[in-house]
């Protein structure tokens, strides 16, 4: 039996023993009483009775154990022309003082704090300071509009909000954050007690009566120590798109998270303490939480916080420059970033300018890695290009080629095999396990391993309904796919209304809810249509109310603006088209799957349940008008 098979089998057959051993690598104030508590199914808890502090594990422990002068974080910001390095000692000093600031404002264990920030060191400092106090942070991605922020404020009910005066998008665009923040607070029913704002040199935000200046508070701060929390206490809430406009508040606990993430660094990514690890993502997404902030710091690595894009900051050589300049061993990003580089520099001219001899492997996730992009990256780098599959809910990879255990031959299009701890099963609609090579719904047999969501924030019922009631005893991932006879997993796409646009997770259902509020729209459908650069982009189809005489193109432009205003530019909702009718089943269900196939120019069968097949001709015409379907280049 190979090394992977042995480790994997033990993780499934003896999860208590397996994870107890992994947990020895974490610093505990008090060891757990029970590794896995399954007394309240389907709510499983890990390391019950254990006590620790996440920030201690990320910073203090390393300062006390010989890494004080090692660089913990490199802030590399081509958009501001800055490279700044922070040692573990410096990070600990800043985080302890900011924790003192928060404590001075009354933030303590169990309180929630929203962090709405661009990719600046203060975002990481704020997250770790919350963890230090046992407060629960909720980071909101900077590309979301005020309305999305307001929805999260209402759900998380933060005591404080931490933000910055602006974000910088590429070399030219400045996003003024304060007006967005003020509007969100105005829209929200739950009001925070105050906001702490980091003033950036590019924009000076006007501060109101309940706003405080980050730098002024820090100048007068006294450091705060670590508050001990239970392993099962929440570390953070991260909102993610579901099938409706109301996002799901994924909860991460402290103990299981520390154990799983530290384990993943060694066994999946094959890095050692002291290595430079770079996740080119954003702190607003799960990749940013897990692999910019927590996991690299748990292991004692140097992590990179990159404020820039793969292209245009200033060119398609930006990633190679960062890897060469900082001696990056592992890069983790989304396939879309590589498609963007490939588009600008197909022959890798920029790549040739840099020395990447320290570079070990590229990991890609967030959306399907199409074989073309895989081959391009692999031929260019001559290093392993590892597709791995996971989601906000799990917080760390479900399927991967575990480079620290045993490297398997790569099959392009597959993220390789289930990661130890995850018992992945393919089910049919009735919950029967399917044989190899048969496509169905991808599920994970319960219990999920440590680090995965124990529930949704204050919504146990929605957790059950969304994830574990469809197939009792299994977690529903929302993805469709199959496993081949050698155990390789293939993820073929979501089976719900979630789409991934440029690695950003969005809800088409949420966009439909917005489009439907237009006074001239009778009904609508928003689909994720395949896109060469962004993987998928949303496209809207709407039916006008009877008697509306306004120009449909004008209405389409209004719909585009509405989605941009309410969700944010990141939704990338740029196309909508009026149609006379939408194709439906006889029971009235919109045939979104068939519409998507027409738009993607895929073979489709006319569903037997369709009410009126002639509508499909009109849809075909509409998608071609937008440049999709047979009109795709
Ligand atoms: N704050 C404010 N606005 C943001 C934003 C942020 N943090 N992130 C994106 N936006 C805006 C963009 O400026 C753009 O606005 P526009 O419509 O006015 O042009 C819009 O949202 C769409 O952004 P995006 O889809 O990212 O397109 P892009 O053309 O700016 O960049 C890529 C394309 C591929 C280079 C970029 O999407 C990318 O680097 N993706 C990788 C994503 C990633 O790392 N995901 C994490 C998973 S690992
Ligand atoms: P997020 O929660 O934003 O990480 O998005 C999770 C979803 O992205 C998954 O449910 C998949 O649909 C998709 N996804 C992530 N990684 C991969 C991958 N490697 N291959 C295919 N799909 C992926």
Could you explain the architecture of this structure?
- With 633 residues, this protein is an alpha/beta fold.
- It folds into 2 domains: 3-308 and 388-481, ANL, N-terminal domain (Rossmann fold); 502-631, GMP Synthetase, Chain A, domain 3 (2-Layer Sandwich).
- Helices cover 31% and strands 25% of the residues.
- It has 18 helices and 31 strands.
- The strands form 10 sheets. It has a 7-stranded mixed sheet, sandwiched between helices. Strands 7-6-8-11-12 form a 5-stranded parallel sheet, sandwiched between helices.
- Strand 6, helix 5 and strand 7 form a beta-alpha-beta unit.
- Helix 1 (3-13) crosses helix 2 and helix 9 (254-267) crosses helix 10 (286-299).
- The longest helix has 17 residues, at 88-104.
- The termini are far apart.
- The model has no long low-confidence stretch (mean pLDDT 97).
- Bound molecules: coenzyme A (COA) and adenosine monophosphate.
- Residues 142-143, 167, 169, 173, 175, 280-282, 285, 287, 309-311, 333-334, 336-337, 340, 366, 502-503, 534, 569-570, 572 line the site of coenzyme A (COA).
- The site of adenosine monophosphate has 21 residues, from strand 25 and strand 26.
Features:
single chain; seven-stranded mixed β-sheet; five-stranded parallel β-sheet; globular; GMP Synthetase, Chain A, domain 3; 633 residues; binds coenzyme A; Rossmann fold; binds adenosine monophosphate
